[in-house]
């Protein structure tokens, strides 16, 4: 059986990850692949319950607690959905993964990166995405896209300075791993973003 492929999408809320995952899934399906679209935190019943907990802006929890909850959700997600799907030869498209933990909990919350990497490796079995699409854009411009939302999670409420720090951390990761992390200007027209992603994927599939 052909081995599955794991592709992740990263970037700030409002960067268009959900839309581009849907477009990418359509493309893969047109080529005859079985596709699983999922998200983090979430993707399984248990992980979705954890998602509701960690993103609750009204709930104050310690950074260490937040980190461990995210990784508990990831461990369940891996065991129940991602690993079985990859073993079945499917394409798995995931909205956020380990890079978000390294950026938000590491850079944003100050949790030691060495600890994060150790815990993440335990949760994922050291799984590394074949490709990560980083949808990048100026935080203020992306904020303008989000103002129509009725609900914001706690990371969206952190402010522009926090979002700028997060953006810089994502771009630093992309510089460190240019072969894996593909940066796309998220502020282009939606069709242009999709075209850039599919052009990259077409080199492999």
Automatic annotation (TrEMBL):
Lineage: Bacteria, Bacillati, Bacillota, Negativicutes, Acidaminococcales
Enzyme Commission identifier(s): 2.7.4.9
Assigned keywords, A-Z: ATP-binding, Kinase, Nucleotide biosynthesis, Nucleotide-binding, Transferase
Function comment: Phosphorylation of dTMP to form dTDP in both de novo and salvage pathways of dTTP synthesis.
First-level EC class: transferase
Protein name: Thymidylate kinase
Gene Ontology MF: a single term: dTMP kinase activity
Keyword field contains ATP-binding: yes
Binding positions (ATP): 11-18
Chemical reaction(s) catalysed: dTMP + ATP = dTDP + ADP
Stored Gene3D superfamilies: P-loop containing nucleotide triphosphate hydrolases (3.40.50.300)
Gene Ontology terms: biological process: dTDP biosynthetic process; dTTP biosynthetic process; dUDP biosynthetic process
Protein family membership: Belongs to the thymidylate kinase family.
PROSITE patterns: THYMIDYLATE_KINASE (PS01331)
Residue intervals of the Thymidylate kinase-like domain: 9-197
CC annotations in GO: cytosol
